[in-house]
Each structure stands twice: as structure tokens, then as C-alpha cells.
Amino acid sequence: MKLFTIHSRPRRQARPATFLPAALLAAGLLCSPVQAQELDSIVAVVEESVILQSELDLALAGIVDRIRASGEQMPPMDLMQRQVLDRLIVRELQVQRALATGIRVSDSDVDQAMVNLAQSNGITLQQMRQLIEQDGEDFSEFRRNIAEELLTERLRQRIIASMPPISETEVDILLASEELGGGEYNISHIMVGVPEGATPDQIRAAREEAEDIHRRLTEGLDFASAAISYSDSQEALEGGEVGWRDLNSVPAFLADAIKDVPPGQFTEPVRSPAGYHIVKVNDFRERGAVLMEEYNARHIMIETNEIVTARDAMEQITVLKKQLDEGADFSELAREYSDDPTSANLGGDMGWFPPDAYGDRVEQTLAGLEVGETSEPFQTMSGWHLMQLMDKREQDRTEDAIRAEAREKIRQRKAEQEIETILRQWRDEAFVEIRLPGAASTSG
Length: 444
Prior knowledge:
The chain is of the alpha+beta class. It has helices at residues 22-25, 33-37, 53-70, 77-100, 107-120, 125-134, 139-161, 168-175, 200-218, 223-230, 252-258, 310-325, 330-337, 360-367, 398-429; strands spanning 42-46, 49-52, 184-193, 241-246, 270-272, 275-285, 291-303, 349-353, 378-379, 383-396, 432-434, 442-443.
């Protein structure tokens, strides 16, 4: 059984080098150490690190396995090999940049990530280790790869965090656009990139390549195979699949290109500062109303502090629960004993609120109550609590949800563009020596 999204890889330098990207590794192909060590020649030098032939072969095998499993047309092996190597180079640059800028991950961070990975596959950490080792993998290498994935994820989060916040004006403009309320498109993407400061000859060559890809697609070339073979986008090795997007969550030039394209069809090549794009609309769906359950509840809290210990608070709330069971009035007890300054004078009344307004513990408690029922005492970081569910209702929150989604779409769109630009800049500026036969040898 192949479950995991990260592969081990042969050791090639004292400093850990790049992991195989999670999207590449979703196939779950685990190769034996013997296979991985058969070829140790260097296929690329990336600044002061290297990528080995065995590492490239391992990544390539995962892609081949995924394509075969999906039934897609197999692209030419030399094109796939170059695509995978380019992805490994970019990932290696991210690891190097993360370490150079002081990003670190602790052993406990790695441990938690491994626990989460095991749980997502429905097994224990020990079972995951046994499966990895049964497939001939080095578990310490597996841990190292997870650490590097955490490094690059934190690097991307740092890039996003450094971006200016989304303003209310931006949200208002988006909400006022004519695209508001439109449906969502499931799209795939092919990009023929151009470098920063490209010459007219480079731009013309990229346009001609995009036009040739479009012609071949029109003649029946499978879109996913074309993306794997030719695309320079981050989604290339996933067959170009981007997923569900509305017109507000993609750049304007793509929104204009796809809004009238029926499912199953693709656009003409479209120009952007990054290059030329061909986008396929895989599917379309209308936006539905967003209905959210809301609660109206009453609350008694005994706060824990330097004077009142958790045990003291538990004992006091237990006494109050007994009084309620014997017929005491909830509102009167809340006014007299509750330490919640917001609701105590209102008899503990918290008003109407969404399920997640006060954290997971309150949400879980209320979800288990019937209207009119009082909870058992429970503890949070603030103290010990009793809650009584007074009523619940289903509220149309479509407008709030659309506004929140608009903010997220703007953030997502800006983040994708920023990360794409930065990665392309790092790739253009880095010293990279390619040692694959027939490939350009050096860049940066």
C-alpha cells in the first residue's frame, strides 16, 4: 500500500538538499535504496549544492507512475526529465534561501508533521515507519525530507506575510465588479514563460512555442500531457491542474480569456508579463447560497487566575451545575457567580453567534446539546464553564461569505503572482549548471 506524499532520496551532500515536491510525490512510489544508488552522477549544480541522477530518477519514476495510474498519454521521457529537473532546481533554491534567511524547523516540528501525515493516512506513526522501512526506505531520510518541506512552506508563508494587507477598498472594488456572483471554473493551465527583461527574439520564440502547443492541442494532443511536457508553470507536473477558481481569483487577463469558454475547451495563447498562457476549462458550477447554523446560548464562567486555581474553579462550577440540576435559575446564577464581564449582567446571555465564534471547545460542546439543555462542566484556557443552549437557527450568510471569499481571493491571487515572480527571479539569478545531455549547461 503506497500512502505517503514524500519520498526519501539518496544522500548527496553533508547539508540536506531539496526534497521531492509534495505534488510530485502524491503518486506514492517508493523506490528501493539499491535502485536509488545505482546512478550517482551529478545532473545539476545549484549554487553550492548538487542534484544527483538517482534523485532525478526517483522523482521521474513517481511522475511516470502517476501518469500510468491516471491513464493519461505519456509525454516524451526527455521532456519530462527536464521538467522534473527544473522543479528540483527551483525547490533546491527555495531550501537554500530558507536556510540563508534564518528559517529553521525543530525536531518537534518534524515530529508533529509526521504524526499529522500518519493520521491523514489513517495509521499510527509506528505503522507508517514500518511501511516505509518495508519498502526499503531510510526513515531518517524520510524525516529529513519532511523537515525540508517545512522549510520551504515557511519560506512561502514569509513571502506572503511580507505582502501589504488587503484593504477594504480592494474588497469593495471586487464586490462591485461585474463578475460578482458568477460561478466557478475548474481550470488547467499551460504557460510558456519568458525571462525578465526578455529580448524581442525570446518573446517571439515563446509566442511561437505557445502557438505550436495550441495547434497540437487542437489536433488532439492531451492537455495534461502537454502541460507535463511543455509548461513552465508550478502546476506543470500535475498536468497543469489548477482546480476550482472564480473569475475574481485569477489574473484579469485569464478571467477575460476563460469567462466565455465552455467546459472541455481551451483558450488561444494569452500574453502576460510572465509569458504565454493556454487555459482549459474542465468544468463549471454555479455559486450556491451559504447557510450557516447560529447558536443562542447562556454562559457561566469561573475564571482561573493567580488566586483561583483550576481545581478551585472546577469545584465551584460543579456546585453550580448541581444547583441547576436541582432547579436553580440559570440567569440568577450567572449574574451572581459568572466571571465573564460581557455576559454576566445579562444573565449569561451571549446572544446569537456562529459556531466557531468562541473556539473549538465551545463549538463542540454546543454541537452536542439539544435546545434547553445545559452542558456538563468543561474547561478552556480561561477557566471552567457551563453553557445552556437556548435556541439555534439557520442563517443566510451568503453576503458575509462572499465578502470573506473576496478578501481571500485577492490575497490568493496576489500571493500566487508574487511567489511565481520571486521563484522565476531566483531561478534567473542563480548559478545553475545543467549536465543532462543536450541541455543548456549554465544559467545565472
